[in-house]
Design brief:
The chain is of the alpha/beta class. Helix content is 40%, strand content 14%. The longest helix is centred in the first third of the chain and has 16 residues.
C-alpha cells in the first residue's frame, strides 16, 4: 500500500519521514497516524535502519488536528478525526515507545494540538527557535488527549505542566527547550540538519541492542518500583557485558576506529526485555 499523507526517504541508516499534507499545513488525521505507525513498524523491522527522523513539509510541522469537520471535528462524526479508526490510532503513543529504533522529531515550524502531542511519544525533539508550539486543547473546548496528563508532568514537573496544559497557550521552540519539552532549539534552517546529525550519531556510534534496551527500560521504569527496576537494570547490564557488542565497543574505542556492531535489534535482544517481535 502506498503512503498518501507521509513521504519516506532513506539516508543510509536513517529513515526520514515527512508529514505531507501541504494544502492543510500537514494537519493530523487518523490516516496520518496509521501511516506513521506503519512506517515506524517497517523501519523497526529493518536492521539497517538505526534511527527515524520525522519532519513536516514546507513551513509547518503539523498544524494540529484537521478541523475540516467544523463544529463536529471532535464529535466522533468527522471523517478526519472520527471514531472509526480511533482505537487503532489511539495506540500510536504506546507503539512508538515500543519500537526498538529511536524516533527523532524535527519540528521545523508550527506544531500545535495533535501536531505537538504526537512528538511527546517519540524519543528526541529538535525544534525551530521561533516555532509556534502549544497544547491548545482547552482552547478548542476539549481536554488534552493521548497520555499528556500523565506524560508532561513527569517530563517537566507539575507546575510547568499546568502552565502549558491548563492554559493551552502558544509558546516558542526556544521556551520549549527551557521547559524541557524540547531537547534542542536551533534556527529554523538548521532543524532538519541537526536532527539528521543526531540520528547519524546514534546510527554510527551506539550499539543497536543496547539502544533498544535503554529505550524500553526508560519508559517501562516510569511504572516500576525502584527495587524491581534496579534489579532488572543490573541483570541486563550484566547480560549486555557478555555480548559481542560490548567487546566491539571497547576495542573500537581503544583502537581509535569506528565500531562495527555485530548484533541485531530484532533477533538479539534478551527475551526478558519483552521487546515486540519483528514486524510482519
Amino acid at each position: 500500500m502506498a503512503y498518501e499523507q507521509i513521504q519516506l526517504e532513506r539516508h543510509g541508516p536513517v529513515e526520514l519521514v515527512t508529514l505531507y499534507r501541504p494544502e492543510r499545513m500537514n494537519a493530523w488525521t487518523w490516516q496520518m497516524a496509521a501511516e506513521l505507525l506503519r512506517a515506524f513498524g517497517e523501519a523497526d523491522a529493518d536492521d539497517s535502519v538505526r534511527a527515524v527522523v520525522v519532519t513536516g513539509h514546507g513551513n509547518a510541522f503539523c498544524a494540529g488536528a484537521d478541523l475540516g469537520g467544523g463544529g463536529e471535528t471532535f464529535s466522533g462524526r468527522s471523517s478526519a478525526v472520527g471514531t472509526v479508526d480511533h482505537r487503532h490510532a489511539a495506540r500510536t503513543a504506546v507503539q512508538a515507545r515500543q519500537t526498538k529504533t529511536p524516533i527523532i522529531a524535527a519540528i521545523n515550524g508550527a506544531a500545535v494540538g495533535a501536531g505537538l502531542t504526537q512528538t511527546m511519544a517519540w524519543d528526541l525533539r529538535v525544534a525551530a527557535d521561533d516555532a509556534k508550539l502549544g497544547f491548545v486543547f482547552n482552547r478548542r473546548g476539549i481536554m488534552p488527549d493521548a497520555d499528556l496528563l500523565w506524560t508532561i508532568p513527569r517530563m517537566i514537573g507539575y507546575g510547568a505542566a499546568m502552565d502549558v496544559l491548563l492554559t493551552g497557550r502558544i509558546f516558542s521552540g526556544a521556551e520549549g527547550k527551557e521547559l524541557g519539552l524540547i531537547n534542542r532549539s536551533v534556527p529554523k534552517t538548521d532543524v532538519l540538519d541537526t536532527a539528521m546529525a543526531m540520528a547519524r550519531d546514534i546510527a554510527e556510534n551506539t550499539a543497536p541492542v543496547s539502544v533498544a534496551i535503554t529505550k524500553r527500560l526508560m519508559y517501562d521504569f516510569l511504572n516500576r518500583d525502584w527495587p524491581e527496576a534496579d534489579q532488572l537494570q543490573r541483570d541486563l547490564f550484566a547480560w549486555t557485558g557478555q555480548q559481542p557488542d560490548a567487546k566491539e565497543g571497547v576495542l573500537a574505542f581503544l583502537e581509535r576506529r569506528a565500531p562495527e556492531w555485530k548484533m541485531s535489534k530484532n533477533s538479539d535482544a534478551p527475551p526478558e526485555l519483552g521487546l515486540p517481535p519483528r514486524h510482519g
